[in-house]
Write a structure and sequence with these properties.
Elements lengths: L2 H13 L5 H10 L15 H9 L5 E5 L5 H8 L3 E6 L2 H10 L6 E4 L13 E7 L7 H7 L7 E12 L16 H7 L4 E8 L10 E7 L3
Parallel strand pairs: 1-2, 1-4, 2-3, 4-5
Antiparallel strand pairs: 5-7, 6-7
Length: about 220
Amino acid sequence: MDEVRQNTLRIRDGVEENSLDWFEELYSTANGNEYWIPWSNGEPHHFLIEWVSKTKSRGRALVVGCGLGEDAAYLSQNGWIVTAFDISSSAVHWARKNYSSENIDWQVADLLSLPEDWIGLFDLVVEVHILQAIPEPIRILSAPNMAPLLAPSGQLICIGRLNEKEEEYEGPPWPLSRDFIDSVGADLKNVDFIKKQLPNDDPDVIRYLSVWKREI
Ligand SMILES: C[S@@+](CC[C@H](N)C(=O)[O-])C[C@H]1O[C@@H](n2cnc3c(N)ncnc32)[C@H](O)[C@@H]1O
């Protein structure tokens, strides 16, 4: 077992046993009723829709932590060849059923230990509300695993909530600091950073979309 993986298991055990298991418990308990999935409104994320409308890029896309599959389906409907994964097998089963007419490669996988043959494979990697939903020690180990998945000229998109005032949150979610967000694409070129609110947001909710490009 390599050092990173050993470390991961040590930290996961030390912090909170099975601290990601609640996702599977939630999806399986919801048993097909979307009402019980607080982050799902049946729509792709507004920021992703805006980004897709502005780009001519197409190719292979990977959706990280796809949940019920709205973002994956949207990319597929807009010409991307999509792989989508989640740590929860119930979520993946549900997403596949929701979008059975889309030609999407649905996978159960953990951002902490991804298949090696995904390295360098994708023209687009998208993460919506994943990093902010997982505890910090696991987040720190998971976040660097996305950039290496990009093919040359590939783009990485992260969407979530911004913690501008360095406040303490009893998450999930844990809004992320700008420094942490920047570290996710440290070896890439940042090509866009948008900060804004959605129409129904509370005044203290600030959202971000960050886009990086692999140059070589
Ligand atoms: C807040 S939800 C967001 C789901 C979806 N992206 C959306 O916006 O509706 C977080 C998702 O990340 C998944 N997840 C958490 N940790 C993960 C990991 N290590 N690897 C893959 N998926 C993970 C959860 O099962 C859950 O579906």
